[in-house]
Amino acid sequence: MSALFIVRAQIVDPAVRDDFDRWYRDEHLPDALKAFNARRAWRGWSEVDSRVHYAFYEFDDLAGVQAIQGSDALKGLVAEFDRLWAGKVERTRDIVPSVQQVGD
Prior knowledge:
Elements: E1 3-11, H1 17-36, E2 40-45, E3 52-59, H2 62-68, H3 72-85, E4 89-97
Antiparallel strand pairs: 1-3, 1-4, 2-3
Helix pairs in contact: 1-3
């Protein structure tokens, strides 16, 4: 079954939200999708806390997600994120394998 690599970013400096959103939309999400060779990627802003942004990268299986951990691709994307957003946006990552699917 598929697995997700999830990145949760929280805006620390509200003044950067629009720039962060634009960068993630135009650069980071497409670059990460290609670098990770993921099946697909999508993102969104929380309706509960407007400072929280989620990005989801779907892989065919858990092995695909595990393969990018510690990879040069991930290291490069992390370095670019840190260069642009350190002190302004905090993030965490999670890996979630699918254990059940119902419907499409």
